[in-house]
Every structure is written in structure tokens, then in C-alpha cells.
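User: Hey, quick favor. My workstation is busy. Could you predict this chain's structure for me?
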Amino acid sequence: MSTTETKEGVRDIKEVVKQKYGEAARRVNSGGSSCCGASSASGCGDPITSNLYDAFEATQIPEEALLASLGCGNPTALAKLNPGEIVLDLGSGGGIDVLLSAKRVGPTGKAYGLDMTDEMLALANENKRRAGLENVEFLKGEIEHIPLPDNSVDVIISNCVINLSADKDRVLRQAFRVLKPGGRLAVSDVVTRGEMLPEIRQSVLAWVGCIAGALEENEYRGKLRAAGFEQIDLEPTRIYCTEDAREFLTEQGIDVDALAPQVDGKFMSAFVRAVKPKLQQQACCGPTCCGEREPRLFAMPGVRNVLFLCTGNSARSIMAEGILNSKGKPSFNAYSAGSHPTGAVRPEALRQLKRARLSTRGLRSKSWDEFAGEDAPQLDFILTVCDNAAKEVCPVWPGHPVSAHWAISDPAAVQGTEEQVEEAYREAFFHLERRIGLFLGLPFASLDSLSLKREVEKIGHQ
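Assistant: No problem, here it is.
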């Protein structure tokens, strides 16, 4: 097959998937469900998509999110999600698994959903609004081209979507790229077991809905290893038989009873787990560099004051101030300043905050001298977010603040199309929001000052 034919085949599959999922979203919006002729996604009448979510989970999300489910499993029930983690759902549909994940990682974490279908994205954002969750964001894009930075996600989930891709190798490589070292892949997918005649395999996969073809379980493991994953495990959650598909296969002119011995037990929904290897720790540089001297608990009664520093105080530090003031109340007050302030806040930075529904009130470009005087608030943390400010001689700050450097690439320095500039601001905002989420999750009351400084500095490398 020629390269042109291959590309056309990939495009055809994507168009079929878009059409299928767009129609499902429209059915939900018109009062139906994603399952043809069914009344709810928890009881679609077929063994693939029915009864995947329990009654408690159904009460945690808008009904429309449940109705829009087209999955073959429940990855959020099987994946271990911890408070403060960043979760990405590949092919998020109406948002059911994203919303459930957002509740489990809590306000210091975040759940992203990625989908390429406009109708599903619109439905998902409406479900987000109805759920009242702020730690959720839905992205438009393809799972073969994940629009997130390297090493930025703790957990990737997916619900019967990877099998829809015509380039599964690329999907798995992309998943590996965006996961942090030690990050986990935890997806539900349809897989097959053993060999069978191609025409039989095609007929059964058509019933399951795997337009691009499900992987045989050992092939799946091989592709995960080739992408770089380790600790690979496939756990069957539902095993299908010909009786489940009798009506569909009969309509295809297939003798179901004769087919049964070649099919039963060979098609299943499975929970697929894998881990991105952790980076090897470097040895301590000396006998005293890693030790603690005179540890003291960092007990800070009342509100903690955080100052974000950058050279121009027009973009990165401004976004950081807005994020922390919106997410850290009432425990934190955030400020920002510059060593050489431009005097104006970049509109692109304000747009990122508004897009995330965070307040922009009172944000202005100002000098760090404002925070060195007698009337300045006593600062608990000084966090530089650009390289220049980190290298300059700082004023003498009131108190004894913990300082750390969180380097963020300067979006204001990006030259290119409007879309490229916007993407630079979006990536800077993403890193700031993620690091601030980690910061808010620190056990401040139980850490001494040296330990706290190490933890805050560590965030700057994540």
C-alpha cells in the first residue's frame, strides 16, 4: 500500500470516528443517549458499554456526561489517583472520566480531557459547568498529537479510544512523552487473544465498534515496550462471546453457532497498565550537602505571603500571581514584581487567566522595590520564574523568606504566528498552574525550613 493510500485510510478512519461521536453527542443533547435506541449509558442493553459506572459515581456527575459514555470500561475505578496529580483522558468524549478524575485529585490537582470532536467538546464543557468543577480543562486535538508539554502529566487514562486510532504506536509514544518520569498509563481498551480468521475478526470488531482494529494482547504489550514503558499488565475486565453479538452477526449473514468456537473468549475489554521509568537518582555530592543543619519547623500562623519575581513583571509572574490568589485563598496572598518592570501587563497573560476563569483584578506591572520597604508585607516565599531575575542582586526582603527558582520559558519572547504566540502563553500558564498546585499540596506544618526549601526547589524541576 502506498503512503498516499495509508494517509487516506487514516483520514477516513478519523472522519468515521468524528461522525460517530458527533452523532452520539447530538443524541444526548436531544434527550437520548449515546447508545442507539437506549435510555442511558449505564444500561445500554449491550455488553460493551452497559453498567460501567456504579450508582454512587452516577450521582457525582451530570446525567448528560453518563449518557454520552461510549467506553468499554471504567478507568477511574481501577486507576490509583492521588490528590494534587495531573490527569489526562485521551478521547474524553462527554467528559465522564475527566469529571470523576477531577474529584479524586482534588482542587490542587487537575484533569485534562482531549477530544477532536467539536460536538463532544461542547457537551463536555457544558457538563463541566453543570458539575461546578474548576480543576478541569478540555482540549481540542488528536491523541496522536497530544497538545501538552513533555513530562507534564502524572496519569493518563482512556476509555476504549486507543483502539480507534490507525496509528497506535504514535499514540503510545505521545503518551510516554507527556507523562512524567514514574507516571502511569491506566486505560480501558478492547483487546483480542490468540489467532483467528481475518474475516471473523473483522466482523466481531465491527460489532464491538473498533473501527481501526483492536490489538492482540501480546502485540499490545510489545507496542508499550517499544514506546518505552515498563511494568506492563493487561487485566481482562469483560470477556465477550458470540451470544452477546448474535443479533448483529446474524444480520451480517454469519452462522453464529458455527462461529462460536472460533470467537468465544477471544475478544475482551481489558484494563491496561504501564509505567514510564523513573529517572535514576544522582548520588549526593558530598558528606554535608544533603544533610540538614539546625532544622526548625516552618510554622507560619495565618496567611502566607508569596512574591513571584520576573524581570519585566508583564507575563509569567503576573499569571502566577493570578493563579495563586485564585486557588490559594484564604491561606495565601500572592504578589508579583519585576527587577525592570515594563509598566504594562501583556494582554495574552490576562487572556490565559480569564480563559481559566481566574480573577485578573488588581494585576499590574510593578518594581520589586515596593516589597523591600518598611510598609511591605512580610514575605514567606520568594519565587523567581525567569532566569534573569534569579541572577540579579535582590533587595533585602523583610523576614526570612524561603526562596526558590522556577524557570519558565518567556512567552513574550516568542515570535511567530498568533497561534504560536498563544501556544507559548498557554504552555507557560500550564507549567505555572501545575507547579502552584504542587506547592499548595505541600505539608507546610510538618516540614522544617530546610526541608521546605528543598521541596519548593524540587517543584521548579517538575
